[in-house]
Structure formats: structure tokens, C-alpha cells
Amino acid sequence: MDVRGSFERVVRASARRPRRVLVIATVLALLGAGLALLRLEPSAATSTLAGKGSESFRATERYRERFGDHSIVVLVRGELSQLVLT
User: Fold this and answer.
1) Is the pLDDT of residue 53 over 60?
2) CB 64 within 8 A of CB 44
3) pLDDT in tens, 11-48
4) If you write DSSP's letter for every residue of 1-61 in order, what string do you get?
């Protein structure tokens, strides 16, 4: 695939229709600004991994209630190839 030729076609099409390019760029910028205002945040909740009606969800919730949901860091020393499955 000729990447240079592809870019040349895009540039030529953009030069022929500058207003259309500006309108598209403006719409994309406004859409991005609108999404930024929503302030969507990632979630690691159990419900994002398993449905609330599933047995996996209920089992995970039971363990969370018993043991809490604090992170645990485990430090292991040794030869990496012996510690990790390949």
C-alpha cells in the first residue's frame, strides 16, 4: 500500500473543499469537548465484569464482604523465568 499516495489524495481533497474540512473539524472538536464535560471515569466494579444476576457476581461479592476490597501488593524475588508461566 502506498502511504504517500494516500496522504496526497487526502490533502488534495481537503484543499478542494476547505469549508467542509473546517466544518468536520469543528464538529469533532465540539463532540470532544462535550464528551470531556461528561467527565466519564473508568470503573473496576464487579458489575462491569459479570452480570449482577450471575453466580460469579454473587461469589465475588461474598468474598469482598468477607475480606474487603483493599489492594494487595505481593513482592516476589527470584528468577523471572521460574516465576511466570510462559
Assistant:
1) yes
2) no
3) 999 999 999 999 999 999 999 999 888 887 877 777 78
4) --HHHHHHHHHHHHHH-HHHHHHHHHHHHHHHHHHHHHT------GGGTS-TTSHHHHHHH
